Amino acid sequence: MKEAQTDLCTRYIRIFIVVSCYWVVSIATVFVNKTLLSGQSVALEAPLFITWFQCVVSFTICFSLSNTGGIPGVFNFPTGTPWRLEVVRKVIPLSLMFTLMIATNNLCLKYVGVSFYYIGRSLTTVFNVLFSWILLGQTTSLRCILCCAFVIFGFYLGVDQESLLDSFSLIGTIYGVVGSLMLSLYSIYTKKVLPSVNQEVWLLSYYNNAYSIILFLPLIIMNGEVHVLWNYNNFDSLCFWVQMVIGGVCGFAIGYVTSLQIKVTSPLTHNISGTAKACAQTIMATQWYSETKSSLWWTSNAIVLASSAMYARFKQIEMEVNSRRPVPEEKKSLV
């Protein structure tokens, strides 16, 4: 009995530490990226170049871990190379979605405040339902659809209140919507591509960052950032490169702690943790930047957060019910 209680206590302590690490790394990543993209200390109007550099840092870390086999006693990094033609053919479409996803997310963060960032990207759940129906033929229950309707209402209310406070950015909100759309597509297609990399999430992250380094180059040119980079005067500043490397390390770390949180808890707990983290992040942002928000603005956040959490809970209940249903005889051979 004492051994069982000790094991349970150890497990709870481990879960607490992992969830805490996720909160700290995730919130720090958002604030670090906001400083890089909009702060006066960097003052570089080249958001896609900053995002590209973060991919370079993530790729460098993955490449090093791949060569060393991982971190002894912590985790083993799967073996694989992104430069095989067969791998490129299978993964490059997903990497294109990955590139557009992180590009639009950072562009959204550049133009909107951290406090509004979660609302600006809150339509991911809605797009998940829509694309699951269009691409996979999966239907959704009425109560989940109602949750999506409340998310849309909360998003609309948040945009309306943000515009009344004279802090609304149309281009930032558009990037947020596109980022939500790309995140939804990326999540769906990840399930189709993972078997090509032996279900190794780390290997997929390694490949995505490798291909994104190349895919970002034409986007940087089309966004007119070459001229900005050519005339930038702080490339010889140690402080600038330290901030850039910290941003890249944060980008890599958020992928690791997200996977770790899902591993030690569950996808549902991860969703709930992410929702609660977004609430804390919003409150911290309003205090950090000394922002004053209206009651309806806070109501919009509460609606989106509560609706997203309820959607995750309803989907978990549905998955549990479906897992208990008996499999027909004619389909058993396919399972």
Helix content: over 70%
Give unreliable regions as ranges: 330-335
Through-space gap between termini: 38 Å
The gyration radius over C-alpha positions equals 21 Å
Strand content: under 5%
Concise account of the structure shown:
The protein is an all-alpha fold and 335 residues long. The protein has one domain.
What would the keywords be for this entry?
single chain, 335 residues, mainly alpha, two-stranded antiparallel sheet, 13 helices, disordered C terminus, EmrE-like, transmembrane, GDP-fucose transporter 1, TPT_transporter, transmembrane helix
Structure description:
The chain is built from 13 helices and two strands; from the N terminus they run ααββααααααααααα. The chain has one domain (31-319). Strands 1-2 form a two-stranded antiparallel ribbon. The protein is mostly helical and 335 residues long. α1 (2-38) packs antiparallel against α10, α2 packs antiparallel against α8 and α4 (114-120) runs antiparallel to α11. Helix content is 79%, strand content 1%.
Secondary structure blueprint with pairings:
Layout: H1 2-38, H2 47-68, E1 70-71, E2 75-76, H3 85-111, H4 114-120, H5 124-136, H6 142-164, H7 170-193, H8 201-222, H9 225-230, H10 238-264, H11 267-288, H12 295-324, H13 329-332
Antiparallel strand pairs: 1-2
Helix pairs in contact: 1-3, 1-10, 1-11, 2-8, 2-10, 3-7, 3-8, 4-11, 5-7, 6-12, 10-11, 11-12
